[in-house]
Amino acid sequence: MALKCVAIDDEPLALELIKNYVAWFPALQLVNTFEDAVSGAEYLRNNPIDLLFIDINMPDITGIDLVRSLAVKPMVIFTTAYKNFAFEGFELEAIDYLLKPIDVKRFGKAVEKAVEYYKYKTSFTKEGEDESLYVYSEYRMVKIELKEIEYIESMEDYIKIHLHNAKTILTLMPLKKVLEKLPGDKFQRIHRSYIVPVKKIISIQGRKVKLADIELPISDSYADFARRWVKM
User: Fold this and answer.
1) pLDDT, tens digit, 9 for 90 and up, residues 71-124
2) Phi/psi of residue 28, each to 5°?
3) What residues contact residue 147 under an 8 Å CB cut-off, 6+ apart?
4) H helices within 26-103, ranges in order?
5) How far apart are the C-alpha atoms of 22 and 224, rounded to whole Å?
6) Around 24, how many Cα atoms within 13 Å sit in the side-chain half-sphere?
C-alpha cells in the first residue's frame, strides 16, 4: 500500500518538483498540495496522511510551527534552502531534512527511510517483536538492527548506542524511553546509565556484567536481574 502524502511549499516551482519526484516512486501517493501553510494545516487537521513534505521558511506560518500545531503528526520530511533550522527538525523527529535544490537521489533516500519507518511502526516479526530500532540522530531518522547493539549508555539527556565494530550513535532520548522501544526479554537495564542485550552477557561476577569488550556495573536497583541470570 502506498503512503498517502501531502506537499506544502509557497514556491510553485519547488512544489512542482516535489510533485514530479513523488510520481516516480510507487511507494508514494500524493493526495494534495498547498502553496500556503494555513490551508495545508487545515487540511491536515481533518485528513489523516502518512507522510508530509513541507518547506520550513514560509511567510504565513513556518513549517516547524505548522508541524508543532498538529495533534496527530504524520511522518515529516522538511525541505528548505536554509541549514539553520536543522535542530528544530531534530526536536520534531523528522524522517529527514532535504536542502534545496533537492537532488532526486537524495529525495529517494529520504523516501526509503520513510517507507522503512512506516513498516517498522506497522509490522512485526513472527514473535511479535521488532528486530530493529529507529532513533533520531544527525538530523534524520536512523535504523539500527537490534543484533548490532552491544550496549546503550546514558549521557544525561542523550544516549549513546554502542554498535558492533565500535560504531556509536548519539541521540537525544532518555534511557527509559529507549528501553520502552526494546523487547523486554532481549534487553535489560542493569544501571541508571546502562542497558545491555541479554544474549551478549558473557558472565556476571559480583556487581559486574562482562560483555565482549567491556565490563559494566550493576546497581543495587537491578541486583535481582543478576541473581536471575546466574540461575539461568
Assistant:
1) 999 999 999 887 665 555 556 778 988 999 999 999 999 999 999 889 877 764
2) -115, 145
3) 131, 164
4) 37-46, 63-69, 86-91
5) 53
6) 12
Q: How far is CA 110 from the centre of its chain?
A: 12
Q: Which amino acid, residue 175?
A: L
Query: Which residues have C-beta within 8 Å of that of residue 104, sequence separation ≥ 6?
Result: 21, 24
- What local confidence, expressed as pLDDT, does residue 49 receive? 97
Residue 15 DSSP SS3: helix
Q: Which three cell numbers stand for residue 68?
A: 508543532
How many angstroms separate the CA atoms of 155 and 18, rounded? 39
Backbone dihedral region for residue 139 (phi beyond 0: left; psi -120 to 50: alpha; all else: beta): left
Residue type, 133: L
- Integer Cα distance of 53 and 76 in angstroms: 6
Bridge partners, residue 8, by sequence: 34, 54
| Neighbour order of strands in the sheet with 168-172 | 168-172, 158-163, 149-155, 194-197, 187-191
Q: Give the Cα separation of 127 and 92 in Å (integer).
A: 31
Instruction: Please tell me the distance from the alpha carbon of residue 119 to that of residue 2, in angstroms, as a whole number.
Output: 11
Residue 225 makes CB contacts below 8 A (sequence gap 6+) with: 188, 190, 218
Read off the pTM: 0.68
Element (H, E) at 5: strand 3-8
Which of 215, 221, 218 lies closest to 150, judged by CA?
A: 215
